[in-house]
């Protein structure tokens, strides 16, 4: 808005014109001839844009903001009120929340002096300067051009004076400033009186300002679905394609702007556009931020496009920060700890932490609260990652740097995984407190990096086969322990051709053994027989009798699970003989336990119980975890033969051992079988208690139904 004003002969000199091009008001603003102020004080206009249509969720954030805007109850200590900063990634819904709160506060009568809204255009090409903002606000406060001082310092003084007068009259004002970019934009606009309230939005956190920050993240899934439902109200696709709508909200990262754009695209193609078609376009496209560009503008006149929003934030970064951001985006990790981020960027850890802090302040990365292990983690919103990847794809140097960074990260993970794998429960459990602490720390590290470790094996580059095979083998024990069978199978399938390409038969044998074990445990026992047979053959060729026996043991398990317990019994007996020849009592105990499983599967419960007794003896002094497994199986076999009291004793001891370790599936299984034995013995109160404990353990393991029988 640009309004020319002639100099008034008898009034104060103001200059040639009033330039309000950068001031954005929604509501009546007087720009006519100046007039004396009413005796009662200046008239403040209520200049709020319309309330956001289809606002969903944010209940907690809205409640917090309204508590901050509520009039004091008379007991509050006097003093300036801190401004509220609503911050977050561009498109996350900051303005909508601020406007929703402002409308609620105005409708409640909390601001009799009025509510002013000014877009400071911080992320446009020409931001509103503090001086121009003050001049614009003075006009909104009823100060005409004839009364506007010519010097900026005097204008600022008049602005504070007007607000002070309103405060003295008991007329509170809410000042809402949208799109603050620089910290320097805000201080000149803050009222001197603590009676008034200030809310501003920004894509960046401003630690230098004494504000109360309300940082927004993505919507929760249910609120995302509600936003789409509101935007497509009455559209029969909501019901016909409910699953696709849910997937669409995920692909939009539960980001309000992305969801609004998706809804606009669906409205635009109402006659022919299936929700599934947009889902497929977003899923298969290399640049979803390019796909998420809708026709027209939103209710506030802003373009329906994501890429320009992210570009404005990226432009604010220094070259070094922008490069780090693009590198982090190109490494397909779910999130990062600081050490891994340092490996990605190639910077020292302390410098990397500075970079991450800056990116977090820009809300381009999100800092997670440190977990129990005290390690901070950082993650990128999926759409931000996609945008930064597309941006980097146009720069050959960044593409090459990302390839090198992936190799560094894979080697970094390989070293850590190999060290942590040493402290997992197998092959021999050390019950000392130090060993238990090391094992728990190793499990915690694997838990935190699980998705990243699997991804590092599966990254599509066909280089570094040795590192990928080594990482796959280091991961196997953890994936087995946590029962992540799909990941275990995927890792094994990826590593097998790499091991063969290396020409390393020992590595290929180990990979085949792990892949077969994963397939057998993951419900594809028939497919497991080929890689396990291959593993036994390769172990024999390289002169590794222990590996060969272990492959036989796993092959027997696959045969039993495929429905041939007789063949499984012969294979386990062969494995047990090999381990006896080697004097390997630990592996002999495993084979003996598996012989019991094969006998039990064939209906020979009494013989199975005798086999489990031998397994318990072999494991008692060598491995407490497998001792617990054998006791649990013994308890089941005793129950199956009607020796209920003996079964209860064995199962109770097995349960005590299993509770010592973070294996909730096994704990729930044993507890379920103990429940059956207690019910059979007529000990209903104890059975109910065991049932409750088993249900809790199964829930913690993610098992939806209690499974009776052996550990499959």
TrEMBL record:
Pfam families: TPR_8. InterPro entries: P-loop_NTPase, TPR-like_helical_dom_sf, TPR_rpt. This is Tetratricopeptide (TPR) repeat protein. It comes from Streptomyces echinatus.
